Amino acid sequence: MKMMIDNILVTGRLVNEIKNLVANLQLSQSFRFKEEATIQQDDFMWADAFVGFGPSPTFHLEELKWVHSLGAGVDSFLRGTEWNKNVLLTRTVCSFGQKISEYCLSYMLSDLQNHHLFEKIQTEKRWEVQPPRSLASQTVIVFGTGKIGEELAKKLTHFGCHVIGVSQSGKPNPSFNISGSIKETSKYFQQANWIINTLPLTNQTVHFFNDELLSNFNEAVFINVGRGDSVHQPSLLSAIDEGHIKRAILDVFDEEPLPSTSSLWDHPNIMMTPHISAVTSPEEGVNCFIQTLEKIGRNEMLENEVDVMKGY
Ligand code: OXD
User: Fold this and answer.
1) Coil, strand or helix at 104
2) E-assigned strands of 122-192?
3) What is the pTM of this model?
């Protein structure tokens, strides 16, 4: 069935940039661009479609036909909401895989090239030869074999890393050296140098990284570019104490912004960034939204449609 989208409500932190970009496109639809806090019930009565990073405080689905997420993750829309399956949910797919790959590679290379050590010995005017280790010697376990995990695997295998993909379905994915379900891949966990989480947050992945899972690793570095709630924080801290995890690099947290009272800030084996590993740019956000709008108009297959039952 062809869906008619006439009235589009746009909100979120990029609202002004998106407004300027959309103004140049001379689209036939009507738009309302609003800060989240100023959206009223009347806007939802008017709108066929809602575009934003997450639900606004007054969000309600009843009159909507389509919701488009400006981020890759849709957990803020789906968790805690009774989603009406007649409302189409799509998400932004753009260069997130490239950005997340660069984020991960920056930490991996810095570690393998001993940046920290060389910075230190330079201040001491010391000549100490410490040969770098190669990416090609590294085993990386990537949790999540979707668009982002897959792109990451392509980049890492290009450098010779041995990349193992773990997914719920266990469906083979040729971008990884090995891929499968957790049961099929757990025999490789002991040899992992790096563990990277790209999983979406769903009811199945809340506190997925718990004591049981983390105890399989041996001095691996854990990078979280998925969602903070996928990690049971006390389990991560014990895994670091017990040497299963050597260090954690965290871009996402169960509470964001991370409160200044969190013990993570001062942890010597935790490095943090403020959710910047894959930021949607206004241009990419608009491109993906417009492409999706056009495809809906032509009644074409949508690659970025979310399976609301699965949650991604
Ligand atoms: C996203 C994110 O969902 O930034 O895109 O985490």
Assistant:
1) helix
2) 139-143, 162-166, 178-180
3) 0.96
Question: Of all helices (H) and strands (E), which one includes residue 148?
Answer: helix 147-158
What phi, psi does 103 have (nearest 5°)?
-60, -50
**Helix, strand, or coil here: 68?**
strand
Q: What is the pLDDT of residues 181-201, one digit of tens each?
A: 999 999 999 999 999 999 999
The tokens of 56 are what?
Answer: 């606004």
With a Cβ cut-off of 6 Å, ligand 1 is lined by: 71-73, 278, 280
Predicted confidence (pLDDT) per residue in 258-300, tens digit: 999 999 999 999 999 999 999 999 999 999 999 999 999 999 9
Q: What is the 249 CA–ligand 1 centroid distance (Å)?
A: 17
Q: Render pLDDT for 22-35 as a digit per residue (tens, 0 to 9).
A: 999 999 999 999 99
Q: Give the distance (Å) from ligand 1 centre to CA of residue 69.
A: 9
> Residue 134 in contact with residue 156, Cβ under 8 Å?
no
How far CA 114 is from CA of 23, 109, 111, 137, 156, in Å, comes to 49, 8, 5, 15, 19
Q: Which atom of ligand 1 is nearest to the CA of 92?
A: 5
Angle between helix axes 115-123 and 96-112 (nearest 10 degrees) is 50
